[in-house]
DNA sequence: CCTGAGTGCTTGCGATTCGCAACTGGTTGA
DNA sequence: TCAACCAGTTGCGAATCGCAAGCACTCAGG
């Protein structure tokens, strides 16, 4: 995190921050799962992340400017992690990864629903980013009619589950 | 590589294959740099990948079905790595990462040109995929007029350098 | 046939990171 | 007061990383 980048290539720059087996998983849970707290990210994580790994990843994500941490959050207090604009902008990367994984890797239908829905609707991706800006950055939304993006994703998930 | 996936989530499935500090870099050099041989990938790599790491990554990429290796390639012979359709389909992931890195990380102008050009032109991305299918899979292209996608990228690079 | 350059790796080694489990030090609510 | 909850930290064995050599093989030239 502190040291020089390996090169000035844009892809390398992104990989140096996001290119490990856990960072994108944590970010996914914040973006799609609405997780904002340490315990929530740890216990409700599908892949079973360990507490020390989670702590290290959150620290790095804050250092890299993808998340911010509540200043009031000390030991024992319920701290809150918040997405920055840079963090929200990783959504297209998630969608691209999900689209690829859906097509070229084994997935379980229930968990892959999100990826399928988002892959088919660029508009929904934009709506979700607007919703994240509202929740995490306090940016008010305009032209907001009908169910929210996360609500649409939830409905698609439930439809696939039932 | 052999073991069970951590979960059935599409994003996790993609991360388990692509989520480490080197895999996407190797793939980038094959896709954008036209590298097809071990030595070429090692010595002409911007970030200085080590030979054992490169060997391990190539092995994993072949196992995962993103690359194939020339059967004729034994020790001492010049072996050739070829992209599969699954490998070619990682291009949108590269573009998304490049677009993000360009915007939210420090990059050097020269090396970031590719990312900038591709971020601004979805059509060029599609053309590059068609070109990769022609080179690696032998799929003939139709409606192909003017300079190729890689040629356009090269011209953009030289324009930025000079 | 020999030699030297080029090929794709493998091996050894110290340092870092991973994954698991237990533990710490604080807050909150009854 | 006290159990439950919260955000981590610490220890430890195993795996991986990054670096430097070395190995096995082929091929072209003399």
UniProtKB/TrEMBL annotation, chains A, B:
Keywords: DNA-binding, Transcription, Transcription regulation
GO terms for MF: DNA binding
Highest classification ranks of the organism: Bacteria, Bacillati, Actinomycetota, Actinomycetes, Kitasatosporales
Short name of one Pfam family: HxlR
Organism this protein belongs to: Streptomyces albidoflavus
Protein name per the record: Transcriptional regulator
Residue ranges of every copy of the HTH hxlR-type domain listed in the record: 9-109
Disordered: annotated span: 140-162
């Amino acid at each position: 995190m502190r040291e020089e980048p390996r090169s000035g290539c844009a892809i390398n720059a992104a990989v140096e921050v996001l290119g490990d087996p856990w960072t994108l998983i944590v970010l996914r849970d914040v973006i799609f799962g609405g997780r904002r707290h340490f315990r929530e990210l740890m216990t409700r994580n599908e892949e079973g992340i360990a507490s020390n790994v989670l702590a290290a990843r959150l620290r790095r994500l804050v250092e890299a400017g993808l998340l911010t941490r509540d200043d009031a959050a000390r030991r024992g207090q319920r701290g809150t992690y918040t997405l920055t604009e840079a963090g929200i902008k990783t959504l297209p990367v998630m969608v691209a990864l999900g689209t690829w994984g859906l097509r070229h890797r084994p997935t379980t239908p229930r968990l892959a629903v999100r990826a399928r829905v988002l892959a088919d609707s660029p508009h929904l991706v934009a709506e979700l980013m607007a919703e994240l800006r509202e929740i995490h950055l306090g940016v008010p939304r305009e032209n907001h009619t009908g169910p929210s993006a996360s609500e649409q994703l939830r409905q698609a998930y439930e439809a696939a589950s039932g």
